[in-house]
Amino acid sequence: MQNTDQVKFTILFTDVFMPKVVMLTLFSVVAFILGILVGRPRKVKRIADYDYDKDEGSDIRPPAGTLSDEDRDYIS
């Protein structure tokens, strides 16, 4: 097996002596776990209890669902 000789690694101002293969395996496992944690999708919070019909003071109107004549002329 290759890379089994003892090597000095300096980790956070501390000298550690261990085989290269152990250090390579350790960092590969840590990088894999970090990749899974960073790459996973986040949970989406949904607002299910909000009643939009009760919000009468809002200036935002719901979409009408139809285009104006000016928009139809622009698209055509």
Overview of the molecule:
Strands 1-2 form a two-stranded antiparallel ribbon. The longest helix has 20 residues, at 20-39. It has 2 helices and 2 strands; from the N terminus they run E-E-H-H. The protein has helices spanning 20-39, 69-75, and strands spanning 6-11, 14-19. With 76 residues, it is α+β, with helices and mostly antiparallel strands. It has a domain at 1-40.
Catalogue the unreliable spans. none
First-last Cα distance: 72 Å
Output the helix-strand order: EEHH
Q: Whole-number average pLDDT?
A: 80
**Proportion of residues in extended strands:** 15-25%
Radius of gyration: 30 Å
The helix tally amounts to 2
Structural class: alpha+beta
> How does the major sheet shape up?
2 strands, antiparallel
Helix content: 25-40%
Shape assignment: elongated
Number of strands: 2
**Widest sheet: strand order?**
1-2
Transmembrane segments: 17-38
Keywords: Membrane, Transmembrane, Transmembrane helix
Region (Disordered): 54-76
Protein name: Lipopolysaccharide assembly protein A domain-containing protein
